[in-house]
Amino acid sequence: MRILRTLDEVTDEARGATAAIGNFDGVHLGHRAVIDTARAAAPCAPLGVVTFEPHPREVFQPEAPPFRLTGPETRANRLAKLGVDWLFELPFDETLRALSPNAFCRDILSRGLGLSHATTGADFRFGKNRAGRIEDLVRCGGEMGFGVSTAELKELGGLRVSSTAIRTALSEGRPRDAAALLGHWHRIDGPVLHGEKRGRTFGFPTANMSMDGLHKPRFGVYAVRVDVLSGPHAGTWDGAASVGVRPMFGENVANIETYLFDFAGDLYGTHLSVALVDFLRPEARYEGVETLVSQMHADCARAREILGSLT
C-alpha cells in the first residue's frame, strides 16, 4: 500500500481510484463495509481510502480527552491488511476545514485526487460546518465525473457498529465486545520504552509502551496476545498486560506494561502490537510487594488459561 499525504504527491498512477472516504478510527466492521462497497463499485480500479490527519475532532475539540482508538500508523497497517492500494492521508487544516461541500468535491476529490468513484457511510458529512450530505456528494459526482455509492450503517446484535460503541466497551472492560464490533482484537501499538525496570526485580520483566493520544481502556490487567513487529524476536507471544497508572508505586501517567510468557530477550526500541483479549481484574493497590507478586502469578495463570482456549 502506498501512502500519500499531500495532493502534490498524487501521480497519474494514483488517479482513477475508487475510494472509501472517512476517518476510519479503529477500522471496524462498519468501515470495512464502506471499503468493500468501494471495491465492488469499480473492481478494476485501484482501491483507495481517503482519510484525514489529524482526526478532525482533534481540531474541532482540542481540549477534549484522548479518544482515538488507533493512531495513523496502526490505522495504515490495518487498511493495508484489507487490500487497500492507496491511502490518501490528507492534512486536516484550516484550509481544508474552510472548504464548502462543492469546493471539497471539486478541489479534493475530483481535481486533487482524480477519483473515479467515491464511497461513504450513510451518515457521512463533509465541507465547512459539516454542511454537505450524501445528496450533495451525488450531485457533485454527476457534475464532476465521479461515481458515488453509499454503504448502509452496520448493526451487530441490534447495536450500531461505531467507534463510540467500541470506546464504551473498552471503557467498561469489555474487550471481547469491542472485538466483535471491530472484527479484530483492539490493539495498542508502539515502540518499547525504557521504564523503571521494576518488574524484573519481581521476576516479571515488562515491555512498557505509551498510550498518549489514545482512548484509555478500563484500567486493570488483561490477557493479551502480542505481535513483536520488529527486531530479532519478531513473532507472536501470549502474555498479561497492566493498563493504568500503577497506584502501588504512586505513578499517575497511564501506560501499558506487558509481560510476555516464556520470553527471554531485549525488546527496547522494537515495536509491539498488543491485542487486548480479556479483562482479568481492575487496577489495585496492595499491602506489599509479596501480595502483589502473588496476584501477578495468579493473573498470569488465568491469562494462560484464557489464551490457551483461543482457536
SSE topology:
Layout lengths: L1 E3 L13 E4 L7 H13 L5 E7 L2 H5 L11 H10 L4 E6 L2 H4 L3 H10 L6 E5 L12 H11 L2 E5 L3 E2 L2 E2 L2 H9 L3 H8 L3 E6 L15 E4 L9 E9 L6 E10 L10 E6 L10 E12 L6 H20 L3
Parallel strand pairs: 1-4, 2-3, 2-5, 3-4, 5-6
Antiparallel strand pairs: 7-8, 9-14, 10-13, 11-12, 11-14, 12-13
Helix pairs in contact: 5-6, 7-8
Fold and architecture overview:
The protein folds into two domains: 2-153, Rossmann fold (3-Layer(aba) Sandwich); 185-308, Elongation Factor Tu (Ef-tu), domain 3 (Beta Barrel). It is 29% helix and 26% strand. With 311 residues, the protein is of the alpha/beta class. It contains nine helices and 14 strands. Strand 2 (18-21), helix 1 and strand 3 form a beta-alpha-beta unit. The strands form three sheets. Strands 1-4-3-2-5-6 form a six-stranded parallel beta sheet, with helices on both faces. Helix 5 crosses helix 6 and helix 7 (163-171) packs antiparallel against helix 8 (175-182). The chain has helices at residues 29-41, 56-60, 72-81, 94-97, 101-110, 134-144, 163-171, 175-182, 289-308, and strands at 2-4, 18-21, 47-53, 86-91, 117-121, 147-151, 155-156, 159-160, 186-191, 207-210, 220-228, 235-244, 255-260, 271-282.
